[in-house]
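Journal club prep — side note

Before the paper discussion, L.F. wants everyone to see what a predicted structure for a comparable chain looks like in token form. Sequence:
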Amino acid sequence: MINQDEKVVEVDIREEFASLELEYQAKMDPKNCKMEDSPISTMSLEDMVRAITPSSDMAHPELPDMAVIEEREAANMKSGHVDCLTGEQEQKLMELWALIIELLSFIDDEALKRSIEKKSDKRKQKQLIETLSKNASTHSVDSISSSSSDRSQAMSGHPLSEEFWRQLATDDPDVLLLRFLRARKWSVPDAFFMFFDAMKWRRSFGVHNLLMRGDERAIKKELLNSGKGYFYGYDKEGRLIVLLPAKLHNRYAQTLEENMAHTVLLMETGRRCMQPGVETVTLVFDLADAPMSSFDPGSMQFMIECFQSYYPESLGRCYVVNAPWIFWGFWRIIKPWLDPVVAAKIFFLEDPKQELKRFIPEEMLQGEYGGSSEYKFKYFPPEEKDYPKPIEKKDRQVIEEHLSAEKTKLIDATLHLHSLLNHGHRLFDEVRPVLDAKELAEKWRAERKMIIVKVRSLLQILDESDVPPHMYRRLGLMKGDGSINWAKLADLSH
């Protein structure tokens, strides 16, 4: 039975869950969504509690056996990643590269808008892919080099090209594009449109401008000091750990836009704090003592969209701990928003102090999670000296000229490899053996790797001159191998 104290929150709970349900209904069918249609709006609190309180077998879903999880992850850890591609996967990667190069080189922004933004017009999308593929496949090996410079120049003027190149300061380009291919189950057209949706979002959201302003100038101090989202430690697979104490979030304390900016800054900082060779993060979503004001469907939906659409294949695992009964109604509504692949990475822990140690070293866990670390979150604001000084104009011009030349070489090497992998049998006459195509492909693979290193090095110089260092770098916590000295951070927090 519901006692009198619980009835005090009846109206609030009913409104919250009616709102959540209607928001989901609107997402699915906005034309037929009315307040009176919500069954929650007419339920008693007792009926509501029964409806959203999970049965005993659902309350705390059991984690699979650790050996099963490790076996499954080991099988997927390298498959479809750089240096572990099948011939077909490498071919699809080069196909995606060729489509991107063709589009950024030859299609004006209005055509891009018409072709990509009309989600419902599958016919036009198909025509666009066919046109770009045809353009990419008509070049002979001998003609590619002569056109690479023109392509590079054309790409530099495209509004989305800059978004693409900027990301390479923190990401290997092949690693970046493979994430979109894996997220779309190796469908090149689907990965292509997903990638450009992400680039358009980065441009419209102003991700680079947010980074250039730096945390203190871009985000409210209250958000930075709140501790509602921060990094500490690596799990046993080397993933960066993101802790999200829900009780510290109050959706009425800031606008949705302010919270979205804070989320993006967290995502981008995480990308810069990952250990080399590790592409995903582990979330610990702590619901202990979280009031109703912490359950924020708008912010939650945006975070889901980030992991699913804008930063695909970035979530390794998410552990939900200390979930109260009220959470299960919230979970039933947000779960349909999740891609099944993302949903499969979410685990509910009944006894976090014991179960988290199965996945995270004790020294990386704080006391409330059963670990030995005494770390308490503390935000260290930047000082004026932490902000980067602009590169001299003439020096920047020299760097950009070198970068332009290396970009041209990368486009050239990529298109050569694409042609050799996809059309090698048509590129050589009868006198030249097919073996030549294989040998040349290996040559271009090696050359591409060296060019990518040069491109990224030059982009990193420009990035460091434009983007203020994140807190972990300005505190001197970054080691030579790219990892973070968490023990030193714990000492600084006291």
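L.F.'s comment for the group: The longest helix spans residues 393-427. Keep this in mind when we get to the figures.
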